[in-house]
Every structure is written in C-alpha cells, then in structure tokens.
Amino acid sequence: MGASLTGMDTPLTTTFPTTAFLGLGAMGFPMAGHLAARSRETGGRTLVWNRTPARAAAHAAEFGSVAATLEEAAGADLIVSCLPTSAEVDGVLDAVRGHLKPGSVWVDCTSGHPDAAPEQRARLLEAGVRFLDAPVSGGTVAAKAGTLTVMVGGPAQEIEAVRPHLAFAGKLVRVGDTGAGFAVKAVNNALLAVNLWAAGEGLAILGLRGVELGAALDVINASSGRSNTTENLIPQRVLTRQFPATFGLGLLAKDAGIALDLAEQARGSAPVIAQVTALYRAASRVIGAQEDHTAALKLIEQWNGVELK
Amino acid sequence: MGASLTGMDTPLTTTFPTTAFLGLGAMGFPMAGHLAARSRETGGRTLVWNRTPARAAAHAAEFGSVAATLEEAAGADLIVSCLPTSAEVDGVLDAVRGHLKPGSVWVDCTSGHPDAAPEQRARLLEAGVRFLDAPVSGGTVAAKAGTLTVMVGGPAQEIEAVRPHLAFAGKLVRVGDTGAGFAVKAVNNALLAVNLWAAGEGLAILGLRGVELGAALDVINASSGRSNTTENLIPQRVLTRQFPATFGLGLLAKDAGIALDLAEQARGSAPVIAQVTALYRAASRVIGAQEDHTAALKLIEQWNGVELK
Amino acid sequence: MGASLTGMDTPLTTTFPTTAFLGLGAMGFPMAGHLAARSRETGGRTLVWNRTPARAAAHAAEFGSVAATLEEAAGADLIVSCLPTSAEVDGVLDAVRGHLKPGSVWVDCTSGHPDAAPEQRARLLEAGVRFLDAPVSGGTVAAKAGTLTVMVGGPAQEIEAVRPHLAFAGKLVRVGDTGAGFAVKAVNNALLAVNLWAAGEGLAILGLRGVELGAALDVINASSGRSNTTENLIPQRVLTRQFPATFGLGLLAKDAGIALDLAEQARGSAPVIAQVTALYRAASRVIGAQEDHTAALKLIEQWNGVELK
Amino acid sequence: MGASLTGMDTPLTTTFPTTAFLGLGAMGFPMAGHLAARSRETGGRTLVWNRTPARAAAHAAEFGSVAATLEEAAGADLIVSCLPTSAEVDGVLDAVRGHLKPGSVWVDCTSGHPDAAPEQRARLLEAGVRFLDAPVSGGTVAAKAGTLTVMVGGPAQEIEAVRPHLAFAGKLVRVGDTGAGFAVKAVNNALLAVNLWAAGEGLAILGLRGVELGAALDVINASSGRSNTTENLIPQRVLTRQFPATFGLGLLAKDAGIALDLAEQARGSAPVIAQVTALYRAASRVIGAQEDHTAALKLIEQWNGVELK
C-alpha cells in the first residue's frame, strides 16, 4: 500500500476555489446547481460535465456554472460525481487519469457498491486525491430544495473539510470508514423496497375486501405500520396513478441487490431482503426498469386482480 | 336475516349515560380510564369488568369507575371491549346473553378477525344491539395519553353516535363496513411486522460490516427507508436492549396471520406478508410469545451472529 | 356426539354388491372405470353420476357402468367421490340426505380440507354411513393404469373392508385418523409445488447462462437435486412446451394453501411453503387457473426473460 | 488472449501414464482410490497429495497410490482436484506455478464458482494445461462405489480425452462451456437445499397434526411430491436422528449462494432460491456449518416445536 501512503502524504486542500460536478441526471442537475451557487457565494466557480454535453450547456445557462470537458473538470479542487452505478464511476476514473490535482477531494454521490469504494479510494490516492463515498437520499424534491440527506464513509477530517461546500445537503452524517456510506445507502434502499412492496401487498388485501384505500392509508399513517412509503410515495404516486419516473425500478432493484450481496459476503441471513430483491428483479423485467420504482406495485396488482387507487 | 332486520328496527340509543369497558389489560386499563373521565364530565358513569376482578377494583380506585360483574356491564348503553382475540369476545358474548339492553352499542377494540365481525354483529342485532369493530393503534403510550388511532367498520350513523364518547381516541376514522376495521388493523400490523423485520435484517447487515448502527439509523430516518420501526421502536426498544413487553410477539404473529388469511381467502398473493408471518411464528416459538414484539429481532441476531446495539 | 355413537352402532357392511362413483372428471372417469370392472368381476354393478349427465352416459357406454341420479347413487353399498374441493362434497352431502344406506361406506378421493373431514364423517355417521378421506396421487396416467397412490384417513377396520374394491389403487396406505389423508395430500402437493417452482428457477438461472437445459436435467436427475418434477413433469410438459392441462394450476394453488392453512392453525412456521403458495396464487391469476400446473413456470420465464426449452 | 492461444497450441496429451489427485477429503479419498486402480490397470501410477500429508500416506497404504508433494503431483499428465471451494483451488494454482507439464489436463471436481472457471482455465492455458470444471454429485456412497455423476464444462474433445480415466464416474455429461459444470452443480445443490427444506416444513406440519411421518413419507414417495430428499435423505438421516456429517451444512449454504449469485449477476429473479439460501445461512450459524446438511431441518423443528422422527 505504498501508493496509498504516498497519497496520504499529499496535504489535503483546505480551500476549494474550483469545484466540479460530474453527472447531470435527474438528481445531479439540481445538486450541481446548489454547488454552483455556493461556489459563487465564496468567489469560486463550478465546472459541470455530462456525458451528453448539451445538458452541461443547459446547466451553465440556468445556474451560471461552466460546461467543461471531463479532463478540465478532473482538475478541480473538489469533484462531486453522481452516476448510475460504480461501474460508470470506474469508467470516469479511467478517463481522468493524469488530469487530477493532488490534494483535491472526490466526493462520489453515486449509490455505489461498498466493495468498489476502497479500490476507488486507493486508486485516487495514487494521484494524491482523497475519495469519499457519499450517496444521497431524498429524491429530486430534496435535490432541488438542497435538503438531501448525505451518508458519508471516510476519514472524519476529510469529511469536515468538504462539508461546507456540499450545498445540496440538508443533513450530512459520517457513518463509518470508506464504503460505509454506500453500505448504509444500499440498506436504506432495501428497506424502501421492502416497505413499499409490503404496503402494496397490504393495500391489495384491503382492496380485494372492498376497503377504501385512502381511508385505510389515513389510519395506517397514524398507526404503527406507517412508513415513508405509506405517508408519501403511495398517496402521491400510486393512488394518483401517476408513477412519475424520478427513481427507476431497475436502480432500486440494483440497490436492494447490493444489500443482499453484503449479507451473502458476510454469510449473513436476510431472507426478506433476499425475497424482495428477487421480486423487484421480476418487476423490473415485467413492468420496466425505467419505470418509477413505485410502479413495482403494478406487479402486485396483476397478481391480485385489483387496482390500488 | 329477519333477526337482523328486527334488530335494526330497534331505535339506536342517542344518549349513553352508562358506559362499560370489558378487558382491563395493558391497553384496556388506561382506555377505560379515559372513558370513565368522559362519562363523569357528562354526568354518567362507567362500569368496568375484567376476568380477574382485582384489576377492576384497582381501576375503580384509580379512575372513579365502578367495578361490575359481566352481567351488570352488559346492560350499559355503550359497551367497549378490548380483549386478546375474537375468540375471547365470542366467549363474552355467550356469557352476556339475556343481559343486553336494546338500542345500545357495542364497540369492540379487540384486534379481531374480519370474519368474526359480521357474525358478532348479527348475533348482537338479535338483541337489538349494534356492533362496531373498532381496533386501535398507538400502544400503551397513546392509550395513556388518550391519543389512540381508531379504525372503525360499520354504519356511519352508528359511528357518529358513539364518536364523542370514545375519549381514548386521538383520531377515529370509518374505514368501511362491518369487519373493515379489523381488516385494516390486521394489515397495519402486518406492515409493522414486515417493516420491523426488514429493519432488523438491514441493521444486521450493517452490523456485520462494522457500521455504527446509531449513525445508520440517524440517516435512514432522514431518508426514504424510514418507518415507524426505524424512527421509534428500534432506537427505543432494540438498541437499548430493553424490549419492554407492551405488545406481545405472539399477538403480532396472530395479526400478521389474519392479514395472510384475508389474502388466502380472496385467492390473493402476498408473498412477503406470507414469509414474514412464518418468521414471526418462528420467533414467537423460539424467543417467546409473551416477549415484546420487537424481540423478534433477536432471531435475526442469532442468524447473523451480531447484536443490534 | 350421541349421533356419532349411534352411527357407529350400525354394523359395517361387509359386502359391496352395489358401488357408486360421483364425479367423472379427468381423474374420476378412469377411476370409475376400474371400479366398474372390479364390480363386474365380483358380480356387482357400479352406478356413476356426474353433474353433467352426458358424461355418465359416456362412461356407461365405455365401461359398462350404470348412469344414475345422485339419489340412486347415494343408496350404494360403497360410494366413491372425486370432486374439485370439499365445498362440492358438502353440496353433494346436502343433496343425498335421506337417500343413504346405513352400513355403507363413503370414500372421498377429493383433495379435500382436513378440517372438513371430521364434520363430513360426523354428518354421515348420523345416517349410519362411514366416511374415509382418501385422496389420490399419480395424475391421469396412473388413474388410467389403475396404479394410483391412495392416502387414507380413518379407522383401520373400515379401510381394510373397502381396500379390495378400490381397484384404481396401486398403493393404498392408512396415514392416520379422519382428516390425515387430506392432510398428507395437501402436504404432498405443497412439496410438488415447491419442487416444481424451484426447478423452474434453477433452470431459468442456467438458461440465462446459456447452459443446455436437457443436458442439465440429465445430470440433475442422476444427482441429489432430482425430484419427480425434474424427472417427469419438466421434461415431459415444460421443455416440450406442451403443458397438457391434466391438473389445474388453480387446484395446486388451493392445495398448497391448505398446507399453509394447517401450518397457521397450529401456529407453525413454514416460510417456504408460505411464499410458494403466494407465488402459485399469482401464477394462477396471471397465467390462468385452468392451465396445467406446470404452466406456473411461465411466470418464472416472464420474470427472467428466458424460455425453458 | 494471446496466452490462451499459445496454450491451445500446445498439443493435448493423449495418454496419461501419470495421474494425480489433490485433496483427499471425504469425497476425494475414495475418488482417488478409483483413479489409482484405473491407473494400475493401464500400467500407470497415481500421485496423491493432501494438505495434511498423513492422509496421503494412508491413501498410498490402502490403494497403492504414491504420496507426493504438491510440486511432484503438479507434473502429472492428468490432475484431478477436489477441494472445498474455488478459493482453495486458486491457492493450489499459485503453489504449482512452474511445476506443470504442458499438454496435461486439470480436472477440477470442486463445487466451484462458475466465475472462477474461465480465469482458472486462462491461467493454466498459459502453461499449456487444459482446465475442465467437473463437479460431482452422489455423496460419499457413490464416491466409494465409483458411481458419481460428473457434470463437466469445457471443450468436448478434451472431455473425451480424459473420460476413460475418470474411474470414479458412473455418469459423465458435458453440460456446456467452461464454467457450465460449476453452474449446473450449484443449481443442483440449490434444488437439493429447497427440496430438503420444503420436505422438512411439510413433515413438521404433519407432525404438528399427529400424522405418523413414516407412513406419510411412504405415500409421498409414491406420489407427485417425492424427491431425492423424501426418498433417501430424510428416511436415512433425519427420521433416524443420525444426521451423519458427510456433506456439511455450510457447504450447501455456499452452493445455494452460488446459484443465487448467478441469478443476481444476470438480473434474474429466483425468490425461492433466494429465501432458502438465507434460511440455510441461518441454519449454518445456529445449528453449525460442520453439521450434516440434513441437520438444517433441526431449525424447522425448533420453529415448530416438533421433532421429525
């Protein structure tokens, strides 16, 4: 681990005049907007990069950021990435080799795999760059509002150094060492998946019996069975039949699969997360990986001959 | 259904000077206290009955209610029952035959079986008595505070007649016809069971990886995976290792089983509730039916060789 | 239980000159043929009844039985019934009241519910008739060959009395008291359901990886993972894409549901049978209750984007 | 893949005067005995190696093989390995570097991971050695009898070259390309795991109801629910309460986990295998990874308060 030690010898940057944001998807676009606003407040600037450059140009026009190539963005003092999976992050790391700035910090907000994090950190440390796994929760609403929850894995000192700049965060918590942020995110999303699916099953049972689902949710949400899915997702997305595609079914299946993978690696036993992961894989294939994650409940509807409305 | 029609011909009582409460368990005791206080405010009185009479005497001493025999209580204008299962309610109905007061209303707060409700209602209607299934949620804390959520099945007119007297309710919602209250309660508790179990699995996965569980819950509770179980039950009962026995594991297994039974009756498909019901049956046998429902997670701890603390 | 005792006082018939068969479905039709042949050999005759009389007439023409009304058939010395569920048997019992012959024996080959058996026996005993629950396994092939496996619940003496006449049996075993036959059949079919589903999942995994499924089944059938489903059902019905509808998906879901019900009644824990029952309910709704039970694997095919061939 | 091409240029050995067997565990010991007998018949010799050398000496004494160092064994014309997992095989491959004989064939009978096979083959091809994944099924009984089922992945020509020498095989089938052998074995064992667990649940249900389990198995084994587990494993190992430890619970959990992993890699959906894998992980932790795989049913016994005997 000589490279790592060498990397850790590089002094950590203490000011971040130039920041960069990689990945301007549904989440990244507004997140990068908050980053750009904070940079401007502190006299800095934010470079933005996206695989399809038109989206970077649109961001620059809307938020005063600077559309950049990947190589330019890689030279920033603080880099924030938000990509579909760890595989895309690895691809970007390949591409920026030789363009990184020693002393800088890379904050990866991707919902990545915990096993990828130590490798990514080691690889960046060879260039004197710190890596923090920092996935977010809250969806596009919180991304726009700048109130995302960020769960970060890595050394506390590095996290504190970048904390003031992550303007998209409403709450930012260090949950452990490198990889812990990804692990907590995977488990959070596995719980989302289970709670959502179970609520779908429960409402299908009530629907089959002729109970009015709005009234049922009203009391459940004042009772012990409530969750974020009964309080928010199902009333807003399912009962309305809108299923707005802000977080894809295929990505939720992937995240639940990461949690299952962690269980398996440790020879752990998580039969419910295992079952639910398989059911989301089915839903992703039958309903569509690009559909909103709440559309998984359409599979339950098919199985029960009932519509949740 | 001539009997039923005859029963419905009996005019519904509009004032309830004498109320009664049957079943002074951990929930019923404080609920009956609120009923007694409301009665006193309106110039009435509350009779209380319990299988072990000493508990009724204690209630009278604490709340100014009147300890009564089952036959005396049966003659009240409004009867509220809160017993372990529908079987115990049926037993009480056997015992009070001939002692009921035509025009009165029986509100059953037991977490009963939806199939029992129409039979119980029909049986009481023969004596001119209305039956409402009205299970509650909120636990002993809300029972003491008088802020329980009550989910009621039955005719709206009857519900409105008794609503002002059910002083233990913080929220009372009509969810449908006779039996719908029991159905919604069963589903609520099935969701509680699933959400709790899944959270236990998720935390076990993180524990196996060395993540600090308090920090993980902190971010999950600001994220999409949150539920009543991550916000309240697990921090208060599991991480503290206290598992205070306010709601028994065996009763939660029973409630989840009712939800599963409803699915099966309708030839519905609820694979996650089905699995989780079986896991709670296992936990109930291995950990103990009288233990607090949150102690189900001790089974997950055994399976993963990790303690949730 | 005075009626039962009275019933047991009626001497058990020792010869069965007139036999009757109720229910000439895919299984019952050939079974009744064997019953008729055996009767003829012993100088007796066999009455046959079916809800749609044309089928009884066809049976008489083919097997030399006698098409009869339900009331006529009810007067036989030995009655064998084979109907879809216990509910249909109860309906027939209603219809034959007053037409039964004291001392006779009723052998019900329906895949019935264990809880129905004691009630049906008690009811028939009031008329001096013995009831044996005697479901069969082996499908239409064994029904035609007269090699069915029969699992019987009831007193040994009664079983031995009728054993020589049940010519459709290749193997007939007393498995316990009244209801035990139905219980063992439900569990057998639950195992069939699980083994079939698991084999479907396993082959889908191999199919996704490009393994040739015929070769895979060849070695599995010489290995520890083999079952009746890998040895017979899948090669003959699934890989051929024929799915001949000899045993309906809806009926298998019903049987698995009976096994699950038995577990629940005993507060037992059977998480795999619980999940699989729910999956067959889903398959029954999505693929069709009338389809062959092996067509459940089409659901797995949909979920995995692969065809088992 | 230049190395691989070079490797494939090395002519394949056509005679195998010296064979070697690596790993003399419960399976490998008798398998190596058959290999040695066949070698002797054809004028060759068999080197045997084991991590603990005393076992190799014992083998030499019993079967006329030659105890050897790993380096000596590595120079054989045909090498057969049978180790706990692919990780141990990788370790051995590290150790034999530089000692392999170009043109030889390595047949790995480990229940390995399908992903390991292509890497192991590529690595050996660099030394001009062919690799075949060839896991076996049949347990210690078939290993002793020389009637194992062998499922092989790799080029047909190479398989045919070694087929006559694999004297422990009763049946040897090419199931596909490199890795396919491991995949089929993982799926076979996943089916074993599911069928065994389901049978345990089913018998627990019958046991709770007082049905005699021997009679129940007797009819199930003549019915559609039968499998290798009801026909052999449960009567011989569970009902006898002997649970002879010939195939460890932990290894079966590992194999089911490989099947689950294959499903996840292909974004497949296998909810029952997923659930059962988790249950075996639990059993492995609670009952013991070294216990016989059939001892998993002790967990079901605990959950149901019933003994399977």
A few lines on this structure:
Four copies of one chain form a homotetramer. In chain A, 52% of the residues lie in helices and 13% in strands. Chain A has 309 residues and is α/β, with parallel strands linked by helices.
What features would you describe in this structure?
4 copies of one chain form a homotetramer. Chain A is built from 14 helices and 9 strands. In chain A, the strands form 2 sheets. The first copy, chain A, has a 6-stranded parallel β-sheet. In chain A, strands 7-8-9 form a 3-stranded mixed β-sheet. The mean pLDDT of chain A is 95. Chain A has 2 domains: 2-176, Rossmann fold, CATH 3.40.50.720; 184-304, N-(1-d-carboxylethyl)-l-norvaline Dehydrogenase, domain 2 (Orthogonal Bundle). Chain A starts with a helix and ends in a 5-residue tail after the last helix. Helix content of chain A is 52%, strand content 13%. In chain A, helix 1 crosses helix 6 and helix 9 packs across helix 13. Chain A has 309 residues and is an alpha/beta fold. Chains in contact: A-B, A-C, A-D, B-C, B-D, C-D. Chains C and D meet through strand 8, strand 9, helix 9, helix 10 and helix 11 of C and strand 8, strand 9, helix 9, helix 10 and helix 11 of D.
